Every structure is written in structure tokens, then in C-alpha cells.
Amino acid sequence: MYPFVRLAKEIVKSFGQSRLPIDGVHVSHHICWPWDLDMFMELNNGRTLTLFDLGRVPFGIRTGIAQTTAKQKWGGAVAGASVMYRRRVKMFDRIELRTRLIGWDDKFSYIEQSMWKGETCANHILVRTATTDRNGIVTTDRVLAAMGYPDLKSPPLPDWVSGWIEADTHRPWPPEF
After folding, report:
1. Shortest CA distance to 139 belongs to which of 125, 127, 154, 126?
2. In this structure, are residues 69 and 131 in contact, taking their beta carbons and an 8 Å threshold?
3. Cross-referenced SUPFAM superfamilies, in alphabetical order (predicted)?
């Protein structure tokens, strides 16, 4: 089941935190609970993705993205992700999530998130997100203009992000089987 109570807690907390610049880093703290575990008694890989939601939503609130999309009656969608799992997260481990916007192109925003156990990075994700309306994807220049940044340009995307974007253009869609 989706952790609606945890999400509500993060949303309430984010309204009490200072406004973040669009290039700021949102940091949140969580615990790996028994219901987050898989059969190997570690954080389930699907739940990892859900916990990353608990970082992106408050990031959107603190930067003003969420308020802008709500005012415009736009929605948001995850349009792709690449995850690296590197260290096990066990029951009752305390984890820190870090979320930041890396940059954008004409249609998508690229968000980087990491999950830390102390000084060790356990998981890392690159998320491609889109803002949508009833007609499809809302261009990022429209979103930025609505947020009050009509002339803001994306910082250069790191090579590893550009490489992922390029590799994804060669992926067949729909799948061939």
C-alpha cells in the first residue's frame, strides 16, 4: 500500500520549511520500517522508488513547482527512471534522501535523488519528469514562465545524463514482444 500517511507528513513539514531555489537540494529523513522490506529482510526495490516520491513531492512544494502546477491545473508524471542500488538498507535503518533538479530540456525535467545511510550512498536515481495538461506534455519553458522564470536556461546536463537521454532514444517503443 502506498504510504499516504508518510507522504502527508512530508507535505506538512515542507510547508514549514524555507523556500528552496529551483537549483536547491531538499533533504528529508526516513526510517526503513518492517512493511518496507522484501523477502530478504531489506528495503524492497519497489518501495525504494516510493520513498523517492517522498523526496520529490516536498521538493516540488519548496521550489514552488507544485503550487504552479496546481494553479494552472497541470499534473505531473514520471516519464522514465534509471536506478542504481549499491548498499542494502535494512529494517530500522535511518536514511537521508537528497533531491535536486539537475536541468531540463524542452519537454522534460531531470531530477537526481540519492539515499544515504550515514556517509554511504545506498541508492541513486535519475528521474525524467513531465508536466502535463489535458492535451499532453506542457513544455518546460511554459512551466518556468508560469513560475516567474521566463528567461531561465537549464544548466548543462552532465554527460551521464545526456548519455542516458541519448541511449533512451534507441529503445524500441512499444516493446518488440
Report:
1. 154
2. yes
3. Thioesterase/thiol ester dehydrase-isomerase
Number of residues that this document lists for the chain? 177
In terms of DSSP H, where are the helices of the chain?
Answer: 4-15, 45-63, 65-72, 140-147, 159-169
What is the Cα–Cα distance from 154 to 67, expressed in whole angstroms?
A: 21
Please name each of the domains of the chain with its CATH number.
4-169 (3.10.129.10)
Q: Between the CA atoms of 159, 164, 170 and 171, what dihedral angle is there, to the nearest 10 degrees?
A: 180
Taking 90 as the threshold, does the pLDDT of residue 159 lie above it? yes
* Residue pLDDT, tens place only, 74-91: 999 999 999 999 999 999
* Whole-prediction pTM: 0.94
Alpha helices in 32-158 (DSSP H): 45-63, 65-72, 140-147
